[in-house]
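Usage

Read records sequentially. Each one opens with the input sequence:
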Amino acid sequence: MARVARLLFPALRWAERTGFDHEADRIDEALRMGVGGFILFGGDAGAVRELTTSLRQRSREPLLIGADLERGAGQQFRGATPLPPATALAELDDLEVTRRAGELTAQEARALGVNWVYAPVADLDLEPRNPIVGTRSFGSDPARAAAHVTAWIEGCHAGGALSCAKHFPGHGRTVADSHAQLPVVMTGRQGLEKDLAPFRAAVRAGVDSVMTAHVAFPALDASGTPATLSEPIVQGLLRGELGFDGAVATDALIMEGVLEGGGGAESAAVRAVAAGCDALLYPEDPAAVASALDAALGGRLPRGFTRRPKATFSNTVMCRKSA
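and closes with the structure output:
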């Protein structure tokens, strides 16, 4: 089970009254399993650094510790610098400012022990009714968004952290919230080229990872399967057509967009890995997901899948400074 556990990244949340202490049992179980890392939500800077130091000291394997830092490390961690959202940066239209935003975010994240930044958002802001993207996007113009995505990734790399373009192949046309249901984008294949432009730029910029969207695109996969679970989208489009050879991460496995249709997170995890995903983010019950993956070996999952070059991030983790 240790092999499959490396693909899991459970979440740890700060609470005002208990800090991270209430997560002690979850941490103990995850480290016993040998997870690939953790996702952090909230906390005072000092407490976050203390936690990440402890996690690495206790882990048998190197850990990736990630966080949603689209608006700088201050978006999550008190004492770090909050930055304007992507839309504001794009309005300035100064690529050096955007590059510096990525660099500062990475530097402050690394100072706290976070080495994987879930940014930049590469979605275009194409739908006024969209409940997900909004100011998180670098705008509606593909060329401008692509340029700022590139600059942000370059800055993140200069700051020494791993970057993550999200949410592939684009969440900008949805009118439903993938946290609550599975959105479906009916735009044709040619129209989706606009959405793909920032992701193509991210791949050219050497982005370390790409996060999939829990969104269905019938023009890309006629089955209506969400991108996270779709081999034609992950392997055919992202790996094949775009030539991406980094790590593919799922969006959170607690979201209804990937859970619709039954089977729960365990089934979704097996399907995501079968489709080509390398990292399973935010499993609510890591042990149950690991058991499902282990049981699928030799069946839905070939026994050699855990030896995919990026599956445990062994190569990716070494391409940035050590924590």
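Summary fields computed downstream for this record:
- The longest helix spans residues 95-111.
- Residues 2-316 form a domain with the TIM Barrel fold (CATH 3.20.20.300).
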